[in-house]
Every structure is written in structure tokens, then in C-alpha cells.
């Protein structure tokens, strides 16, 4: 991987903003024009640690990866945007996105004026290595892979991911937002594929979507560029603290994951047996995608009765497909009863 060639010239040349808390977290802090009085008794009168030291230390233990290979952002969505800004020259470069997948990859491309080379995942929703190879040109900087994939729910084949990374001179962003719901066959990309950025989030299995915490594990030089370009204080104090708490409370989190996995099986079985539903896709995530001729009618019926699911019918190869997130057992009962009633 030749990062000198991959990273935008202006990003390589720029100096990061040197924030006060970047340099000092302790002492008599008269350097950042903060209010010295902790009026709410929360400690939030101080700016957050822009280097996320405590959280990265904890993530480092959790993933058994060096601290310098970990970046934390304000949600994965911030990381996606930063990666575009580091690698893609607006108006010139392009990215490859196998679809259907998470919509923000494309939205962030549009925002950054980067063109998208879309291709279809194959019939099993796996990336087609040949098709991807044919799309790549010298201006292709990123390939987006999502595993388990949203909205299809399946894990991507790790040998194919590795093959794609090995045969690409740019960066593969491997989005593992739903990894905790899958049997994790994630390989050690850090040591085997230096051009892969593995991205995770606290928004799904760890139950902290409202706090906006995403992170990625990658080559140290990539992490350095991420810390150079991010806004200094994008991840607030409370989020950093709660993320550590969630990692320390693994037992509590795991119990909820177990519940969601057994609920996923229950919802999957119900949908598979329901007349009128033509296909239910196997899921390694906390949602299930299914196909029905009456997709719009069912979607509206559920909505009218207070249950909101996601209509994914306009995505590539997902005609008449709806995605239902796994809720609490009680919520799932309500949704399933309504679906049963709809088809009666
Ligand atoms: C595949 C995938 N990646 C990333 C995200 C966003 O994660 P975050 O909340 O960390 O920004 C989502 C949210 O739905 C997602 O489905």
C-alpha cells in the first residue's frame, strides 16, 4: 500500500489544528477559555480528550490491537465522511460500492463530489470479485464492503474480502456495524491486509446509538491521518465515558445480544411460515429482510397500527423487500400479530 500516492496532497501537507486539550488534560487549565466552574457537577465544563486516550486504551484491550491502530469518531457516519476527505479528490476520484447496501456510502460520495461505480452483489448477496475488478481504474480510491450487510443481513465471505483487498491498490472500508450479532469469522486484517479499514460502532449491539460512537481499526498511518483531519472535539466527554462503561459491562450487553438472537430466530421462523411472504433472507444481524408482493400495503398497514419498519423496495435487486428490525419480545409479538392479521 502506497499511502503517499493514495492520500490527497492537501491532506498530506496540512497541519492538524493544535487544540488545547490535545496538549494538556491535567493541571490548572487556563488554556482553552473554558468555564472553570463545574456548574452542573458533571465535569463537562472541560472539552473532551480529542485523542480519546482512555477509550482507545479500553478498545485496544478488547480487540487485542495496539492503541495507535484505533480511531474513534462521532458515529461510523463521521468516519465514512473523513475517509472520503482523506482519500478522494473531489471531481476526479471514484469509489466502488456493491449494492444493495448501507445508503450513507453513496450520500457521502455525493457530498464530497466523488463519483460512484455501483455494481450488484451476486445472487447470494456476496461481492462479485470479477465485476469489482473490472470497475476499478487508477482513480478508484475506495471499495465499500459491509459485513453483515445492511439491508440484506448476510455476512460477506471473508476469503472474497481478502481477495478484493489483495488485488486493489486503494482502500477497502469493511463496515462491521453488525458484527456482534454474527458468528465472528473476522480475520486479522490489521496484520494481513494493511489496506483494509475495519469499522465498528456502539450504535447497534452495544445499545448507544444516541451517543454517536463509531471506531475503526487500521494501519497506523491511516489512523494518524484520521486524527489529523477530524474536528478536534467531535466525540463528547459523555460518549467517551459511556463507551468505556459499555465495554466494561460486556456481561449485560451479551445477555441482550442473546435475547435479540433468539428473537431473530423467532421472527425469521414466523415470517418463513407466513403465507403471502415469498422469501425471507437469512440474517447475521439484528434485522430480517423479506419479500412480499404486498410490500407497500403491508408497510402502510403496520404504520397505520403504530409499527414502523423499513421499506427497502427501491434498492437494487430488492423489489418488494421490507426490513424489520428485531425489537423486544413484546414489540415483536405485536408486529407478528399484525402481520398475521394483515394476510388473513
Ligand atoms: C452498515 C452500517 N454502518 C454504519 C451505520 C451507522 O453507524 P453509526 O450510528 O455508528 O453512525 C449504520 C446504521 O444504520 C449501518 O447500518
Write a short abstract of this structure.
The chain is 40% helix and 16% strand. It has 344 residues and is of the alpha/beta class.
Overall description:
There is one protein chain. The chain has helices spanning 3-6, 9-13, 20-23, 53-63, 75-87, 104-111, 129-135, 158-166, 189-192, 220-229, 237-248, 250-273, 295-304, 329-343, and strands at 70-73, 94-99, 115-120, 140-146, 171-175, 196-201, 214-217, 277-280, 287-292, 310-311, 321-325. α4 (53-63) runs parallel beside α11 and α5 crosses α6 (104-111). By secondary structure, the chain is α/β, with parallel strands linked by helices. The chain is globular, with a radius of gyration of 22 Å. The chain contains 14 helices and eleven strands. It has a seven-stranded mixed sheet with strand order 1-7-6-5-4-2-3, sandwiched between helices. A four-stranded antiparallel sheet has the order 8-9-11-10, covered by helices on one side. The structure holds pyridoxal-5'-phosphate. Pyridoxal-5'-phosphate binds next to α5.
CATH topology of the largest domain: Aspartate Aminotransferase, domain 2
β content, as a range? 15-25%
What CATH first level of the largest domain would be assigned? Answer: Alpha Beta
Mean pLDDT: 96
Shape: globular
Distance between the termini: 58 Å
CATH level-two architecture of the largest domain: 3-Layer(aba) Sandwich
CATH superfamily of the largest domain: Type I PLP-dependent aspartate aminotransferase-like (Major domain)
Order of helices and strands: HHHHEHEHEHEHEHEEHHHEEHEEH
Cofactors and ligands present? pyridoxal-5'-phosphate
Q: Reading side by side through the largest sheet, how are the strands ordered?
A: 1-7-6-5-4-2-3
Number of helices: 14
Helix content: 25-40%
Q: Report the biggest beta sheet as strand number plus sense, adding barrel if it closes.
A: 7 strands, mixed
Contiguous uncertain segments of 5+ residues: none
Could you say how many structural domains there are in total? 2
Number of strands: 11
Structural class: alpha/beta
Work out the radius of gyration.
Answer: 22 Å
